[in-house]
Amino acid sequence: MSIKLASKREVAIKVRHSLFARSLSRGKLRSRRGVRTGESLIWRLIEPGFSHVQFGLLKSNMVWQRVCIIGVGLLGGSIGLALKRKRLAKQVVGVGRTITKLDTALSRGAIDIATDDIVKGALDADLVIACTPVKSIVDSLVVAAGVALPNALLTDVGSTKQSIIKAAEGRLSPSQFIGSHPIAGGHHSGVEHAVGTLLDGALVVITPSTNNPPELLESMIRFWESMGSRTCVLTPREHDEALAVSSHLPHMVSSVLAGATPPEFLQFVGKGWMDSTRIAASNSQLWRQILEENHAPALQALKNFATICGTWIDALERGDFDRVESLLQAGKATRDAVASRHLSG
After folding, report:
1. Predicted structure pTM score
2. C-alpha distances in angstroms, 47 versus 23, 51, 93, 115, 278?
3. Burial class of residue 193 (count of CB atoms within 10 Å of its CB; 0-12, 13-18, 19+)
4. What are the angstrom distances between the C-alpha of 85 and each of 88, 111, 173, 196?
5. Strand-pair partners of 94
6. What is the pLDDT of residue 307?
7. What are the backbone dihedrals phi and psi of residue 207, each rounded to the nearest 5 degrees, phi first?
8. Of the candidates 203, 234, 265, which is a domain's last residue?
9. SS3 state at 70
10. Strand 67-70 vs strand 92-95: parallel, antiparallel, or unpaired?
11. Most-buried pick from 28, 34, 57, 245 (CB within 10 A)?
12. Helices (H) and strands (E) in the chain — how many of each?
């Protein structure tokens, strides 16, 4: 899959609904031709023979009256802090299961009101964001939708998308719910680690269904960009395949590396080992859900990785160190290219 980067904060804002649905169903999501590679990652709808696609800067930031965040952990808390820091919400309500954690969110200024009841938290909200584990996202939003404003915007931050979009069909209105995934966070969990700048410059992947109206997509893009993020539009399947390689595979490899190190050698590990195994310290129950929900793409990514490992094994068994150096150089080139892009972005 090839994805182009597009100029900052540009987005197609006027596309007919029929074209939008048809383009998604045919997989015709392409980047705007002639746009300079660089800063923001946004895909446009381009249909042969259709030229009435308007590109331009988003309108001024929206100010939400009542935002409900379901699940005030690292990401939920960071969203709350960002909303408050940027003055994008008049009231932020946090919903959680543990009162002590909600008290921490209150004391840190991530939320204004805390409750363990979704109905109370989402009442009259005009924006609801589910930051719960993947399997409970849709159920949480269904409850919230019943008491939120009729035109409330509903989204999530789940790191798998096909299962969420499928579960939402017939349960959440396509005129309200659209999937999101901020690629931000860390191996630490909990609101105590939340920071208001976590989303600054982070990439948020938005995954509309074929039934979402273009106005909802525009609103979702506008929201995340007002939070300081870059945005990208992918189909749920494209998202899951991409994240299986870029996120889920690194976690599995990190866990394997940590688990494969014999206890008697742990006293010799250094910064390289610590850097390479950092994400292995993430919540294992959360990652079980992620890998279960994105099982097939994650498995394929791991099989492809095993094939590359086989190439390494073959080169070492043959004593072919020209091949080993070539493999090392290929890895370095990819790593350097990504690091350079992050530094320039």
Report:
1. 0.80
2. 7, 8, 41, 47, 44
3. middle
4. 8, 11, 30, 7
5. 69, 114
6. 97
7. -125, 80
8. 234
9. strand
10. parallel
11. 245
12. 13, 12
CATH number at residue 272: 1.10.3660.10
Q: In which domain, by residue range, is 71 found?
A: 67-234
Tell whether 97 and 192 lie within a shared domain: yes
Count of CB atoms within 10 A of residue 234's CB? 23
Token pair for 259 = 């688990």
Q: What is the pLDDT tens value at each position of the chain, 345 positions in all?
A: 444 433 333 334 333 333 333 334 434 333 322 222 223 333 333 222 222 222 223 445 689 999 999 999 999 999 999 999 999 999 999 999 988 899 999 999 999 999 999 999 999 999 999 999 999 999 999 999 999 999 999 999 999 999 999 999 999 999 999 999 999 977 678 999 999 999 999 999 999 999 999 999 999 999 999 999 999 999 999 999 999 999 999 999 999 999 999 999 999 999 999 999 999 998 899 899 999 999 999 999 999 999 999 999 999 999 999 999 999 999 999 999 998 877 665
Number of domains observed in the structure of the chain = 2
Q: 201 vs 127, 221, 301, CA distance in Å?
A: 22, 14, 27
Nearest to 152 by CA among 172, 131, 132, 181: 172
Q: Which residue in the block uniquely carries the two structure tokens 């009256």?
A: 65
Structure tokens at 127: 């924006």
> What is the per-residue burial (b if ≥16 Cβ within 10 Å, else e) of 57-70?
ebeeeeebebbbbb
Compute φ and ψ for 169, nearest 5 degrees: -60, 125
Burial of 45 per CB tally in 10 Å (0-12, 13-18, 19+): buried
Examine the domain organization and report whether 82 and 223 are in the same domain.
yes
